[in-house]
């Protein structure tokens, strides 16, 4: 078995588990830009003690060379409480932003983990201008 065998993918507009990558498609070499990654962008994902997104991870794969790990975003509060499930005072939503600088064309890759429905992925190509 390989990771490719367990990752699921779909159109984020119709599937609430797919991480959505929002970033420009073209950026200047070495210039900062913001990448936002969200699960449940079009169709809200539950954020309950029983069913939630645990984490999102963002990578960059240049057209040539190795993959680079840009960030891990954990979401640790889902309404847990000593009073019972979904009675807690805090919930973290599965959305994160990171500032990035790139010097090569490539692809952003996002992976997200739902505690019920497993691993989901998406990609976005980025091109560099001088």
TrEMBL record:
GO terms for molecular function: iron ion binding; oxidoreductase activity. Residues 10-122 form the Desulfoferrodoxin ferrous iron-binding domain. Signal peptide: none annotated. Keywords: Electron transport, Iron, Metal-binding, Transport. It comes from the Bacteria. Belongs to the desulfoferrodoxin family. This is Neelaredoxin. It comes from Anaerosporomusa subterranea.
